[in-house]
Amino acid sequence: MSTDFQHGREALGARLRELRTEAGLDGKTLAARLGWQRSKVSRLQNGRQTATEDDLDAWARAVGSPEHGPELKARLRGLESQQRHWRRQLAAGHAPVQDRYVVEYRRTATMRGYEVSVIPGLFQTPDYARHLMAQNAELMRSPRDTDAAVQARMRRQEVLYEPGKLFRVLIWEAALHAVVGTREVMAGQLDRLVGLIGMSTVELGIVPLGAPMQLTPKHGFWIFDEERIIVETINTELQYDSSDDLALYIRVWDQLDSAAAYGPSAHRLIARARNAFAAT
Fold it and tell me: Once rounded to an integer, what is the mean pLDDT over residues 212-221?
């Protein structure tokens, strides 16, 4: 059994336990309500058995919270994909991962994103992407298929020109100053960002360093059609689709958006970073 699957199963079990305790029930009482052996309740709560969708519906009804049935079943369906470790994903190199994203982006109509320290892949130049891919391959000790991976990432950007798409992307200003590759690479990358302002499919906001904020920048994340969230950490890609998680991340995005600069104001922030690279 994969570590990712087991971690997800344990997380589902913890949620089941939480619902039981919130209902004021012990394991014996819940088992009696369900007509199950008490050992089954224990195995499900401790992630030692995989629940069925019928099990989860029954559990939700037994604890007096049938409205949580859809959430529990969504967690069950996400067990394999909720946590995907980069080392395993990159075993065949970066190109297959980029190809998967091409598919995911093409089936998404509206995307909200936020990045703290890097220019998003959708907006990267080939040179910027090449340096990032090489760095990541060295860090993760994965196969070096940099050229193929860069080509796949550029294919992903074709969705920016498809009618009916909307990409609402926020970038913390610090990412404009974080040097990836050379200063020439950064200058070209910032020129690319300027060119995106005003596109019908792109709403690009820059969150200024000095802007009053309701919360700290935290980590980057992407919301796909307000149905699924992807968060990338150093070693893992996390996916969430529960209503509570979606509501939280949408609320965070909205608060960051309220501090962002758009249009000419965003252009000035990018130009300021661009001028700093040109002056050194």
Answer: 86
Q: What is the spatial distance between Cα 84 and Cα 239, in angstroms, rounded to a whole number?
A: 8
In the predicted structure, residue 214 carries a pLDDT above the cut 90? no
Q: Say what the pLDDT of residue 173 is.
A: 97
In 3D, which of 169, 184, 159 has the Cα closest to residue 253?
169
Domain 3-77: assigned CATH number? 1.10.260.40
The pLDDT of residue 258:
95
Residue ranges, comma separated, of all CATH 1.10.260.40 domains in the chain are 3-77
Region 83-278: CATH code: 3.30.870
Q: What percent of the chain has pLDDT over 90?
A: 59
User: What 3-state DSSP class applies to 98?
Assistant: helix
> Within 13 Å, how many C-alpha atoms sit on residue 228's CB side?
16
Output the DSSP codes for 52-93. PHHHHHHHHHHTT-GGGHHHHHHHHHTTTTSEEEHHHHGGG-
In sequence order, the 6+-apart residues with CB closer than 8 A to the CB of 152 are: 94, 95, 98, 99, 102
Q: What is the pTM of this model?
A: 0.70
Domain with CATH 3.30.870 in the chain: 83-278
